[in-house]
């Protein structure tokens, strides 16, 4: 698997039984990915949006997988001995995720008495939540945002797991040119960059406010090393112990990094962004690339998807969360938008290019594709999350369009 946030940091080895929470429509993809991980065993889909498994070994591969939102443990005693809970700073700070105040108080009291943990609803490492047959403990440092960074969002920003699903459906190959013509706050582009750091990206949107957020988000990819959250959490003992291979892979937000020797080598430009006085180590840091500090950029441009500023046949993958016509746009506007966008995708896509388009305005997209004739649906996947049920359509060229030169 490519796109691991910090490929060289070795996370702890643990033995535990884990519950991974994803979205309805992504569990099979998650299972496929965890099956390939040497430390994961006994994998089973427990419900439409949960996968259970055991781990016996390092956490690195699991922590690098973007297809789940949270990891929880079922057996707290065992986890405290050998599992994910054993690596948290003590006393463990916890919250209780239930709306019922009486039940919450009861669980807080019982947990404080039994484990000696402290209730810190605003600054927690464990979230106790009801599950099928009792309570499970979500591990804060393994949540999606603690592993990959907190992105600024708008109400219509693409769900983080959905973005991961879309880029898997796109089957991106190294070095390909990937465009999101409705990029908004850049969620899909961020996911592509994490998974496929060698791709050439471009994001377009007609909303300058969304583009400003996308630009900020592109500068902030997190680097939190799960389960090492205490002071001096990351200590690099050997020279060159930490190499940052991908643009923007390392963001240090607190006093998290102490460098004693020539421990940090940054190979590419834009690899390191320091927010605050996080780094103080004399001349311990040498930057050999071009304009290394300042964050990693993704090319973004203001424009309309109906007139892409791109040459014919110049793009390998188009991936987009289209306006569904609810929060963004309208069904009426989509009647002209969708055919126009499909026309542009047909124009800019390479002969063996692929487009992945997400919408809830399904009939409209289907009929626009049928009328347009140059593109066909080769796969589709229904996703369910937060009351939405969009379908992701994978499009490739029809045979006729493959043999007709690009206009
Ligand atoms: C569903 S949102 C995409 C969300 C985005 N993937 C994100 O994570 O923020 C649709 C986006 O399309 C943009 N948009 C709507 N009509 C457009 C058009 N004709 N051309 C370009 N962008 C458009 C909106 O501004 C909005 O940001």
TrEMBL record:
GO terms for biological process: methylation. One of its GO terms (molecular function) is methyltransferase activity. Keywords: Methyltransferase, Transferase. Gene3D superfamilies: Vaccinia Virus protein VP39. Residues 162-189, 297-380 form the Ribosomal RNA large subunit methyltransferase K/L-like methyltransferase domain. It holds the Pfam family UPF0020. InterPro entries: RlmKL-like_Mtase, SAM-dependent_MTases_sf. This is RNA methylase family UPF0020. It comes from Kribbella pratensis.
